[in-house]
Amino acid sequence: MKHAPTPRLASFAAVLVALATAACSADTNSYPSLGLRPVEKLGFAEPEVKTAVAAPDPALDKDLAAITGKLAAISTSFARDAGKAETLARSARGAAVGSDAWIAAQSALAGLDDWRAQSSSLVTDIEARATDRAAKLQPDYPALAAIRAKAQAETDRQTATIARIQASMPSA
């Protein structure tokens, strides 16, 4: 025995088929594509940046020549006084803290510290000039960078010399 579908079941099946086919119809809204956009086709490499070349600056070159002369004078005077301080420090090695030899060596070290302060001040002056140029959006000036490196190296050398001499003496 076969059962014939009831009209109610047949109409329900027809509505269900209509809804199912309506879900497959084309969407009328537009959505963005998932494909590559034009900007994504360019790549992620950094763009090339052209380096600006500093134009000659006679006034700055004159200042740098004066700074170079000061640095040379400070370096020469420091080397001369460092030799004296080492001699005094050698004689103070066996002496007691507060003795005449120890005080003379400490005084010589204070003189070396003064030379180091002057060379450190030159580094600060050079950096101020570089900062002024940067504030005016001017490119780096190679001679300024070179004298800054030289002055910093001299200051570092002086600091190491003072520390070495100080370490060789009895501490207070």
Shape: elongated
Please outline the major beta sheet: none
Number of strands: 0
Structure class:
mainly alpha
Low-confidence stretches: none
What this model shows, in words?
By secondary structure, the chain is mainly α. It has a domain at 78-88 and 96-168. The chain is 67% helix and 0% strand. It is built from 4 helices and no strands. The protein has helices at 7-23, 58-92, 100-135, 142-168. Helix 2 (58-92) packs antiparallel against helix 3, helix 2 runs parallel beside helix 4 and helix 3 packs antiparallel against helix 4 (142-168). The longest helix has 36 residues, at 100-135. It starts with 6 loop residues before the first helix and ends with a helix. The mean pLDDT is 87.
Keywords:
4 helices; 0% strand; mainly alpha
Any chance you could write out the topology, listing elements then pairs?
Blueprint lengths: L6 H17 L34 H35 L7 H36 L6 H27 L4
Summarize the structure.
It is built from four helices and no strands. The protein is mainly α and 172 residues long.
